[in-house]
């Protein structure tokens, strides 16, 4: 269980965050200088060098979006100009990509962040540039909503595995549907039918809350408050739920911690957005009903993370990984990325920390001070660990920023260094990006800047 530092304040991390951004800039320049873009999107490092791994092109937005975040944090114009050029040159295929569930990753991280900077006054306002970013987000949201599967009690955006497959990751793609809807767009289908993107957002959120998250209510023998499954499987003939499954975790009956983190972060940021709208905006149920199921899912997943993560806030890659028992009381001490049995996943920590912080602040603002403080302090505790060695990458020849990230343990894709029995010492594009995102989030709070949300671009 995480040993939550109750006395830690956001401002206490100021120096560590400054060091982080200095290293971050160096890593971005190193990738731009040495990475061969003709090989595809950089995904994870091997011996300190970013490499690609063909599954889907889901990390390019994190690469270019990192430059936008770096500019936001540092004010260094070169990062902005490079990110803008890269977005124009390379991101259009991601906007119209019909084969993935990753639009909220790729396109909100680039077009969304650039539009946000303009709306916040951090870059010059220009009508044509604004329209360009908005058009990209409108189309991206509609294309993403087109990957739709109807089920008995609603529907969901299906994963690249096919129409039977609901991935817990996809909750973070709901951001792009929300933005597209708020920009006045709809998905227009056969017979000119107009499909409301907010309705689809709500249905996907509900399906994720109902089928990807467990609440200790007896759904199966392994049902526990806050456990998640990576993939929920449905019969597409009759729309019935069949079973939990996992692509990147150990089993459908254990919890892949990065999937857990996606749920934590996704529900928390959607709670923040729904808090800004009134009841008349919502056609699918009442706003209160929606907030109730999302808050339940957010609390459950955050509680599970706190309970099933080592004391320093860095989780092992799956809470049911088969060799964890060989580590002894692994939850009663700090995570060990150099052990002989199971790898940790720092990228899960980077994502989860933002979920803890956002949920904590949401509850604080609602007057639930004690509970909100607990989540908030847990988030700060995780970030503090990430901003120190052995997780912060300080070597000048290593392109990664946050070390000890895991991509796909079951497939054996992650690099095992010489002399080690498990993967360690490497970084991922999503881990680095989300570390930047949470550091920007905290920096803005420390400096009393505008609160950072994905919907600041509206």
Question: In a few lines, what is going on in this structure?
Answer:
Helix content is 46%, strand content 7%. It is built from 13 helices and nine strands. The strands form four sheets. The chain has a three-stranded antiparallel sheet, with helices on one face. Strands 1-2 form a two-stranded antiparallel ribbon. Strands 3-4 form a two-stranded antiparallel ribbon.
Number of helices: 13
Give the strand order, joined by hyphens, for the main sheet. 5-8-9
Low-pLDDT runs of 5+ residues are none
Oligomerization status of the protein chains: single chain
As a percent range, the share of helical residues equals: 40-55%
CATH class wording: Mainly Alpha
Structural class label: mainly alpha
Topology order in helix (H) and strand (E) letters:
HEEHHHHHEEEHEEHEEHHHHH
The gross shape turns out to be globular
How far the N terminus sits from the C terminus, by CA atoms, comes to 38 Å
* Strand content range: 5-15%
Main beta-sheet strand count, sense and barrel state:
3 strands, antiparallel
CATH topology-level name = Glycosyltransferase
List the SSEs and their pairings.
Layout: H1 14-34, E1 44-46, E2 49-51, H2 60-74, H3 77-90, H4 92-95, H5 103-119, H6 127-145, E3 148-151, E4 154-157, E5 165-167, H7 174-182, E6 187-188, E7 194-195, H8 197-212, E8 231-235, E9 240-245, H9 257-274, H10 287-307, H11 346-365, H12 369-386, H13 429-446
């Amino acid at each position: 269980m995480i040993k939550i530092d109750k006395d830690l304040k956001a401002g206490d991390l100021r120096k560590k965050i400054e060091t982080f951004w200095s290293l971050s800039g160096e890593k971005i320049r190193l990738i731009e200088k040495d990475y061969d873009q003709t090989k595809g999107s950089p995904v994870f490092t091997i011996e300190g060098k970013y490499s690609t791994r063909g599954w889907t092109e889901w990390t390019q937005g994190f690469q270019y979006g990192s430059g936008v975040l770096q500019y936001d944090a540092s004010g260094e114009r070169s990062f902005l100009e490079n990110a803008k050029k890269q977005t124009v040159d390379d991101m259009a295929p991601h906007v119209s990509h019909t084969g993935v569930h990753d639009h909220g990753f790729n396109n909100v991280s680039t077009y969304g962040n650039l539009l946000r900077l303009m709306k916040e006054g951090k870059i010059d306002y220009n009508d044509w540039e604004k329209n360009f970013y908005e058009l990209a987000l409108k189309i991206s949201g509609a294309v993403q909503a087109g990957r739709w599967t109807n089920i008995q009690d609603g529907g969901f955006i299906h994963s690249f595995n096919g129409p039977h497959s609901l991935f817990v990751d996809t909750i973070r793609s709901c951001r792009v549907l929300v933005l597209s809807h708020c920009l006045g767009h709809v998905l227009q289908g056969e017979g000119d039918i107009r499909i409301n993107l907010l309705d689809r957002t709500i249905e996907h959120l509900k399906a994720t809350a109902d089928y990807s998250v467990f609440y200790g209510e007896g759904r199966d023998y392994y049902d526990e408050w806050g456990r998640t499954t990576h993939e929920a499987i449905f019969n597409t003939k009759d729309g019935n739920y069949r079973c939990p499954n996992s692509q990147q975790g150990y089993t459908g009956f254990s919890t892949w911690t990065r999937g857990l983190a996606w749920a934590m972060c996704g529900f928390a940021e959607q709670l923040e957005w729904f808090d800004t709208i009134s009841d008349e905006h919502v056609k699918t149920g009442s706003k209160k009903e929606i907030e109730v199921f999302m808050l339940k899912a957010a609390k459950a997943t955050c509680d599970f993370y706190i309970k099933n993560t080592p004391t320093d806030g860095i989780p092992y890659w799956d809470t049911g990984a088969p060799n964890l028992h060989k580590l002894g009381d692994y939850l009663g001490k700090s995570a060990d990325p150099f052990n002989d049995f199971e790898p940790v996943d720092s990228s899960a920590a980077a994502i989860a920390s933002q979920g803890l912080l956002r949920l904590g602040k949401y509850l604080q603002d609602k007057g639930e001070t004690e509970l909100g403080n607990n989540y908030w302090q847990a988030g700060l505790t995780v970030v503090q660990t990430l901003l120190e060695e052995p997780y912060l990458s300080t070597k000048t020849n290593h392109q990664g920023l946050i070390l000890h990230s895991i991509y796909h343990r079951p497939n054996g894709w992650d690099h095992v260094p010489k002399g080690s029995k498990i993967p360690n010492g490497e970084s991922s594009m999503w881990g680095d990006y989300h570390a930047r995102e949470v550091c920007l989030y905290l920096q803005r709070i420390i400096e009393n800047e505008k609160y950072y949300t994905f919907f600041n671009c509206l």
